[in-house]
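Working notes for the structural subgroup meeting. M.R. asked for a predicted model of this chain before we commit to crystallization trials. I am recording the input and output together here so anyone reviewing the notebook later can reproduce the run.

Input as submitted:
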Amino acid sequence: AGRAGSPAAWPLLASLAIALSVMLICWFLTRSRTAYVAVLVALGYWAASSWLAGRGRGLSGNGRGRPSKQLGYGGGIVVALGAAGLVWLFRNDRLVLLEAPKSIAYRLEYWIATLALLRDHGLFGVGLGNFQSYYPRYKLEIASETIADPHNWPLDIAATLSIPIALVVVLWIAKNLFRSGLAAHADERAPAGFPLSGLAVWDQSLSLSLLRGAALGGVVCGVLVALLTGLDLEATLIGWIAAAIIGLLLWPAVQTLAEEGSRCCRSAAVAIVVCLLASGSWQASGIAVPLLVLLAVSDPARRSTRPPASRLRVWGVIALPLLGLASFAIQSWQPVTTGWAQIQQAQRARSLQERLSLTEAAIEADPLDTAPIGSLAQTRVMMAELSPPELFSRRATEASATLERWLAADSAKHLNWQIAGDFMLDLAAAADRRGLAPQPWLEKSASLYSEAVRRYPSSVQLRVQLASASALLGRGAACREQLQQAWRLSEQTPHADKKLESQLIWLPFLPEGAELPYNNSRWVPAEPLANWLRKNAG
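Returned structure, recorded in token form:
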């Protein structure tokens, strides 16, 4: 690229300045405190490694021992931009700064609960995608929400896959990052003219092939996504054109970085690691995959010259992705889309019997999906509610058996048990309207709500829901115990949406003698219901 003052360097500097400007604007407008801290840490790492590299070159006797003046200029620019950004945020969106302590406190709540989860599931994990199903059981009583991931990548790996796997991943990342830094530092300390085994050689044909392949794959994926989801093609096209222009401008800088050093790549990897310590999950492939790429690029030993690939290797590179695509289409895409289409048809069915048939077909098409089983249970409950008295018991029993099948297939979610308890209350109300005994269905409802409370013990709503079912059964002591827990949880939580006055309770029919706000919607405000139960239950 030439020296900084030479004419050949100006296109590179201009492209780098444009790309950095766009990225810095996007970074700033994200309002992500984690991203702010991560970039600052990465800049500090880059400055420190540049200073150490400058000292190393001086010790090696190559006459370049003093740190570059550009480093000082760059630090001054960073400080000035940071100060300007702080002033702008304080004047226009000061909550980004003032709410930082709350964000830290929330994350501490998530991490403490996740550590409690690991005490029970640390050896094998809870499985990918299952964290939110298990988290409510360990959620702190004062916490605000039931999160989908612990907002910490290593903790997420430990919770979903196991602590041993998380340790392997963390140690592997640390080893590669540390090894890359040592190797690059040794390269920078080497005297001028010292042979580096082809480390400065960059395979332009390979890089351009990768660029063309990524562009073609992006176009194909974009078109497929647009056909499936109704994506705005115009906005996507504009975004891709802008990204392509920036990429073309930045391409000379990318080549220079790949040829002359890996410090920037290592600094970017450090930024991603910092982000992953405060956010990220197994779903965050947009963060994790770039980290793996940066670790590979930042290792000088991996950029050395290699012999041409054999024909077998080339065919393997082509065949393996095709095999993976075929497996995905057969094992995942086809059953999921077929089952989803049948469920959508079932929602628009003209009769319950037609809905029942379509739902059973969806279960057969995708046996691993438990949602259609829940839909089947709901359909059977509706059929029981609409059936004549002589058919009610049989159809209600079928609905109960289907609910048990659903819960056996997906037992971790408290919401499943809560929904099943609601369905049992519906059957109890339907039995009562027909002059039949509601007690068997009330018994099952209370049992199901009890399981839901066990999976989400800090839920005020579930506590009052279980108290209501207990009152309908005449269990005054159990009702009062759950009400006491509900009031305690409501008083200590700082979140308005978790308090008693914000909850609604599913109650298809009221306890005898109850005078409560009730508009036949089956939902009753929790606070007046709890006050009435406290005075009248048992």
